[in-house]
Fold this sequence. Notes:
This protein is mainly α. It has helices at about 10-30, 35-40, 45-60, 60-65, 75-90, 100-115, 120-130, 145-160, 195-200, and strands spanning about 175-180, 185.
Amino acid sequence: MRYAQGGGLTDAGxxxxxRVRLQAVERFEGGQGNREIAAALxxxxxxxxxxxxxxxxxxxxxxLSKGSxxxxxxxxxxxxxxxxxxxxxxxxYGWADQRWTLARVKxxxxxxxxxxxxxxxxxxxxxxxxxxxxxxxxxxIERNDAAAEAWRKETWPLVxxxxxxxxxxxxxxxxxxxxxxxxxxxxSPLTCRSRExxxxxx
Length: 202
């Protein structure tokens, strides 16, 4: 069984898994075979084989669970360094503008500390340490609220395209156009393949 990142087990689940491994060690010492141990402990033979090999190499310590790898953690000193380095700005690290994105912070963490985070993990790390998404500290000097509001009320309704309504389509190879004289629909002689054939035959 594959466990999700973080081990997929609670502390109680990990303790139960540890007890199973220690029971396997007792059975190794008692001379039982892998198939018998696997059936008794309700685990795969492959797991028992792996535990036996670890037991032969390092004794009981080799069989003990390493526990959940968990997520990588940065120390307080590393967080402080990350904050100092991020204050220098992305340009220092070769990015074209001054925006810190999660992907850039993730890359910076990897470069500085040789630790790999996912983008989501980077966001969780930043949130845990009180960082938030970027907000401008000041409004732009050039901003004209009256002009922006006037544009939104007057120009935007004129520019905005209305949504097209869904209409029934046609799978015909003929382009259909409306007949001006009778108001009905007839195939266009220029695009209808069957009409072209009729004209050539005549």
